[in-house]
Amino acid sequence: MGFMTRIYITGVSGVGKSSVSRELNKRGILSIDIDSVKDLCNWTNIETKEKVDWQPGKNDAWYDSHTWICDKKKMLKLLDQKKDVVVVGCAPNQEEYLDMFDKIFVLTCKSEIFIHRINNRSDNDYGKHELEWKKVLELHESDFNKDLVEKRKALLIDANKPLEDVVNEIVSKFD
Question: How is domain 6-37+82-172 classified at the architecture level of CATH?
Answer without folding.
Answer: 3-Layer(aba) Sandwich (3.40)
